[in-house]
Amino acid sequence: MAELRLPAEQKHQAELAALAAADSHPRPPRWLLSPKAVETYILGADRPVGGVTITPKYIGDRALIQVAIATLASDRALMLAGEPGTAKSWLSEHLCAAICGTSQLTVQGTAGTSEEHLKYGWNYALLLAEGPSERALVPSPILRAMRGGQIARVEEITRTSPEVQDALISILSEKQIAIPELNASVSAERGFSIIATANTRDRGVNEMSAALKRRFNFVVVPVVEDLEQEIRIVQQREAELRSDYQVGTAAPDELARLLVTLFQELRRGSTADGKTKIKSPQGVLSTAEAISVLFNGGILAQSFGSGAVTGEDLARALTGALAKEGRDDLKVLKEYVETIAKSRPGAWKSFYQAAKKALPA
Q1: What is the pLDDT of residues 71-103, one digit of tens each?
Q2: What does the alpha-carbon distance between residue 114 and residue 15 come to, in Å, rounded to a whole number?
Q3: What pLDDT shows up at residue 57?
Q4: Residues linked to residue 122 through DSSP beta bridges, in sequence order
C-alpha cells in the first residue's frame, strides 16, 4: 500500500545517495554530507550528480541557506522564523534528511506539549511490573537525537507553554538530560542539534523568553516578494503534488501567474504598479496557500470539469481557501475582483466571470 506522504529522506533517497558518493568535502562529526553537499541538495544542481538530477527543495536566498547550514555545523541550535506558509517546516525537514538521514525525530509544539515530549516518558505497564528501568523508559525524539548525534526538530515552539520552553533552555545549555529515576543522565553525542520553527504571527501565544532566544541562531525565512520566483515555487511544488496524487494536467502558465499576482497584490494591499490601493484579507495568503489553491483547482478540473484547469476551477478553489476566515475575507476578494480583475485582459476575463458566480452575493 502506497504511503500518503514519504519523508524527505525516502522520497529523495537517490539524490542523497548520489551526493554522498560524489562528496569530497570534509564533513562535520556524524554528518552524512558535507555542508557544501547539503547546500546542493537544498538548492539543486545545474547538472546531474552521478547521473541523478538534484532538484531544488527551496527556491530563495542562497545566503540564508548557507547561514542555516553553518549554524548546524556549530554548537548552536537553529531557529527558522517567519510568516505562516514560508516553508519553514519544509526546509527543516530537508536539512535533517540531508545531514543525519532522518527528519522524523520531531516534536510538534502545541498547547498540550509537555516536558515528557522533550525529555522522556515511561511504559507504565513495565514501570509497574519492574520499576524504573532502561527497558521501561520511552525516550523522546530529542533524547534519541542526543544519543545518536542527530538533529531533532521542534515545530511551532511559540505554541508550547513557558514551562516546556524553559525545559528546552536546559537541554540546549547543558546538552544533556538527567534521568533521576535511573540515577543517570544522557549527554549528547557530537552532531546533536535542534532545528525549531516559530510562526511570527503567534507571538501573542507564548513568546519566547530572552534566555531561550539566546540559545538559537535565528534565520528569518521571508515571504517571497519576487513574482517570477514565487510563480516558479508554486508551479514546481504543485507539480510534485500532482505526481504524488496522480492528478491530471498542469494549470496553464497564465492561470498560475494570475493566481500568484492576485496573492501578492492582496498581501501587499496595492496593485503591482502601486497605483491602486486595495484591502488585504485577515487570512494568510502564503506561498503554501497558493500551491494548495492551484492543486485543488486541478482536482476540481479532473473530477468535475473538462480535465483542463480553467478560471472557474481556480475561482472555486480560491473561494474555499479564503472562506476559512469568514465572510469578511470573501468580501475583500469580491471587491478585488470587481475593481482589479474586471478590467484586466486575457485569463483575467474568464476568471472574473467565474469568480462572480463562485463568490457569495
Answers
A1: 999 979 999 999 999 999 999 999 999 999 999
A2: 37
A3: 97
A4: 137
Q: Assess if residue 3 is contained within a domain.
A: no
Rounded CA separation 174/158 (Å): 22
Count the Cβ atoms, other than its own, within 10 Å of residue 229.
14
Same domain, 128 and 161: yes
Q: Among residues 306, 309, 314, which one has the least CA distance to residue 333?
A: 314
Domain hosting 128: range is 8-220
Domain boundary among 199, 220, 241: 220
pTM of the model: 0.93
Q: 53 and 32 share a domain?
A: yes
Residue 1 included in any domain? no
- Indicate if 210 and 255 belong to the same structural domain: no
pLDDT above 70 for 61: yes
Q: Which residues contact 174 (CB under 8 A, 6 or more apart)?
A: none
Is residue 129 in some structural domain? yes
* Residue 185, C-beta contacts closer than 8 angstroms, at least 6 positions apart: 176, 177, 178, 179
Alpha helices in 44-140 (DSSP H): 62-73, 88-100, 115-118, 124-130
